[in-house]
Amino acid sequence: MSGRGTATVAAVAKGLPSLSLAEVVATSGLMSRTDRKYVLAPGDFLAVAEAVSSRCLEIGGQRTFGYSSTYFDTPDLAIFRAHRQDRRRRFKIRTRTYTDSADTYCELKVSGRRDETVKVRRPHPAEAAHGLTAPALAFLDDALTAAYGRPAPRPLAPALVTDYRRTTLVTADARITCDTSLVWRSGSRSLAAGSDLVLLEVKSASERNSVTEALAKLRIRERSVSKYCAGLVALGLATGGNRWRPALRRLGVA
Question: What was the pLDDT predicted at 154?
Fold first, then answer.
């Protein structure tokens, strides 16, 4: 489902200078970074876009791309609970498929020092996007052992799928991902977030940058929102998610 949020982002992206994927990786690969998240109405997004100087990722003539991520957790949602309790050693396990190309990766995101997010990933078979292969599990065990001194929990099963459209803007000191048309899915359940909103993530090597300063001047507040955790709460699959309720209300699903 698309709406004003998607149309507004597309209109802004169309008017910006382009940037290739190789240039994005060279200037802001940011596998280790600080993330700041915001939920914006179209007018606020336009104000932010006007306040910063950015270029837009373009691949094959496209500037907006489809993403589908499958998140994995234990039967008792141990990974979700670690985030709900804001534990220092928390992580997320997912596969991510770029739906325009079908390229798929198994990804691990761990929380480092000073709110830093560290992401590692490896190629994953597209036909196994909703499962974890033996090589993927070995990769996760090695990466989590290196980060936290213990392997990935078992058993792991798909807990949630998120589908959305993403446009990526790049400034001199940050990368801005602009997500719209967000849908959460789990089994027979599905729920779409408000189609007139933009979920903005500012990713930078430092906590302060030109984008977060522009957002502060516009009095746009940061929101505590995790697509995975908020999705479980929104679908009624997890309890105790009060920290994500303000963002869910802003997204029109709480």
Answer: 97
Percentages helix, strand, coil for the chain (3-state, rounded to 5) are 30, 35, 35
pLDDT tens profile 172-198: 999 999 999 999 999 999 999 998 999
d(CA 245, CA 224): 9
**Which has the closest alpha carbon to 33: 218, 202, 232, 240?**
202
On the CB side of 194, CA atoms within 13 Å amount to 18
What tokens does 89 get? Answer: 């050693």
Residue 240 CB contacts under 8 Å (≥ 6 apart), including other chains:
84
pLDDT tens string 113-123: 666 889 999 99
92/140 Cα distance (integer angstroms): 10
Helices (H), 54-209: 78-84, 134-148
User: What is the SS3 assignment for 182?
Assistant: strand
